[in-house]
UniProtKB/TrEMBL annotation:
Name of encoding gene: GDI2
Keyword line: Acetylation, Cytoplasm, Golgi apparatus, GTPase activation, Membrane, Phosphoprotein
GO MF assignments: GTPase activator activity; Rab GDP-dissociation inhibitor activity
Protein name stated in the entry: Rab GDP dissociation inhibitor
Source organism of this protein record: Eudyptula minor
InterPro entries associated with the record: FAD/NAD-bd_sf, GDP_dissociation_inhibitor, RabGDI
Amino acid sequence: ECILSGIMSVNGKKVLHMDRNSYYGGESASITPLEDLYKRFNLPGTPPESMGRGRDWNVDLIPKFLMANGQLVKMLLYTEVTRYLDFKVIEGSFVYKGGKIYKVPSTEAEALASSLMGLFEKRRFRKFLVYVANFDENDPRTFEGVDPKKTTMRDVYKKFDLGQDVIDFTGHALALYRTDDYLDQPCQETINRIKLYSESLARYGKSPYLYPLYGLGELPQGFARLSAIYGGTYMLNKPIEEIVIENGKVVGVKSEGEVARCKQLICDPSYVSDRVTKVGQVIRVICILSHPIKNTNDANSCQIIIPQNQVNRKSDIYVCMISSAHNVAAQGKYIAIASTTVETADPEKEIKPALDLLEPIEQKFVSISDLFAPTDLGTESQVSKRQACVRGGEERGSMLNCCFSFQIFISRTYDATTHFETTCDDIKDIYKRMMGSEFDFEEMKRKKNDIYGEEEQQ
């Protein structure tokens, strides 16, 4: 929502951004001080003295890293929101195999030295990486008999004779799929994902991921500031009483007895429970540690992916770890956040393989969140379909208000992935429905003659 309010402001729209919370970022906030996190999770008492000063902590509620070459970094660069943030490279990406973790081989040299694969497997994997690097969807000479729109990824793996373990870490730690459904789909998307991973990695070398100092809560604040520079208004602590709809179209939002009128409305599922459908659950466990994770070469930040095959599940388990090096924890402390899509009636048992890697854990905070997707796309074409259905019947449009409304655009809940690519896809999707045109990064560039408040600060 903050990114969209920033982009819409740059595009010349008049934006009012209201938030019922007293802090920026809603679900993707970073909680500070530590005392507030204890309160949020209803833990008795206050943090022990061993945790240091409460205000040294900025704990993310939703753990995610940025792909160095990914869509969110592009959005930050194009809008110049980078000037409000500092980033650090995450030190390593690891994958779980047979109860142990291994560094994801990120270069040809690492692939050849990795104990994840045997000697012959390494050669085949190297050939595969070279193929992916050279692959160009606009140049059939690079296809080598593969049809990117028809050949499945399963067949591509077969072509290079790659074994199950290599398929596991390629699909889940490089292409970052959460399940194995991708195997029977055309290979183009997977090859592009692996290319994104490799290109992101090539930028900084240690891993393809970046993380902002002081926590992810800095991101929504950066985009809120962008919106303000372009004349947008931001109101925190603003209760939302009602979304006002007339003739099936949103006309305003009622708060504290007043109505702020609008032509379009963007909100998350928590504001419109009657217009979304539950599509699953995610469990997240925030763990405070006094030590780096074992077998990560004492990295002060890392990601660990546990592919579903390794633990007999349908979806992967993720761990993101950051530390005092990122100004999010007290000196000598580490924050590891494990997350996965819930599959059974005992989510805590499902996430146990990840927690076992983190022992000993000083304190943990467990949350289970419902995942929602909009049932109402907010576009006119959707309503006219409904109109057509009802017109011949007795109801004649009485269903219009309850089913769909023009110009309410609802985001999806944050999923279990540990990067922002799916979130950016959602942003682009909402943009397209609102504007009626494809999302264009060029549109986000700051206009040279925009001076809202920035010039005076120079």
